[in-house]
Amino acid sequence: MATTTLAANTIDIVEPKPAMNPTRKDSANELNAEPFDPPKRPVETIETISVESVPALSVKSAVASDEAGIRVLDISEYKGAALALAEAFKDDDVSRYFLDTPDRADWTSEQKWDLHVAIFEYVVYAHILKGLVTTVGSDYGAVALWMPPGTHMDDLFTAFRSGMWRLHFRLSREGRKRFFTEFMPLLHDTKASVMGERDVSSWYLVYVGTRPSARGKGYCRKLIEHVTDMADRDGRAIYLESSHVRNVPIYRRLGFRECRRIYLQRAEKSNVALEIMVREPGVKGDH
After folding, report:
1. Inside any domain, residue 189
2. What is the pTM for the complete model shown?
3. Residue 119: is its pLDDT beyond 50?
4. Mind listing the pLDDT tens digit for each residue in 191-200?
5. How many C-beta neighbours within 10 Å does residue 126 have?
6. How many domains are there within the chain?
């Protein structure tokens, strides 16, 4: 992998290796298994809000944005936020990548759904501990997970408290290879390569998603602009990975630009692409 820092308006396409089975149909959007449908479950909604665990950099502006209906979540709300993101990403190629493995071919759709939700519970919990988690709309209509400048989750305390360590046991052998040996190092190394010396001082949009029932209301735009406003005031860049090509034009309208494409390459049917995008401070989006 190249180690040079890339400008935000430069596209560096990393050519993928062939998928593990090159004779299978190669489609960037094709899933490796039949879609799974979540069982009907009520969403946990909790009214109390605490911002004690959110970095000081983010709290003041996040709370001040309450007029836009944006809330900062505390640890008591992690399950509701996780379920909302699980619904938003239930057919996402990257999310399916860790579940649709050959050694879990005998799993039912409900078993896969339960693990899918659990993964988001671990991730949301970790971001409430060390990052910033915001929501807008009723019943967690849209949720965003951010890592503000100067923060990270690479410590044993966060892994233990959030439950991320459980993935070593809950994922299959192939799932563990995909998540811990391929996915996590690839994301870490790519971000460091793209952002260079700005890696520590930039914002990182880890997840943003809208429940199917809340789409078309501009919620994701609100959540993103909540942080782009802060980033512009502080002169900071924002980094993200997009797991679906259809989202790229949306991010471009918010000022993000593609700078690299990376691939997850252990799938049986096709490689899974992620678009790396960066928003420079003060950049206007496409119209």
Report:
1. yes
2. 0.77
3. yes
4. 999 999 999 9
5. 23
6. 1
Tokens coding 117: 């939700």
Kindly report, residue by residue over 30-89, the tens digit of the pLDDT. Answer: 323 334 444 444 433 323 333 333 344 444 444 445 557 999 999 999 999 999 999 999
Q: What is the CATH number of the domain that holds 72?
A: 3.40.630.30
Strand intervals (E) in 73-186 = 132-136, 142-147
Q: In this structure, is residue 43 part of a structural domain?
A: no
Residue 122: give the domain boundaries: 12-21+54-279
Question: Of 10, 9, 6, which Cα lies nearest the Cα of 195?
Answer: 6
**pLDDT at residue 252 in the model:** 97
Place of tokens 């659990």: 118
Alpha carbon 285 to its chain's center:
21
Residue in the block written with tokens 């671990």: 122
Rounded Cα distance, 97 and 28, in Å: 12
- Integer angstrom CA distances of residue 44 from 82, 139, 287: 10, 8, 37
CA dist., res. 251 & res. 103, Å (int) = 36
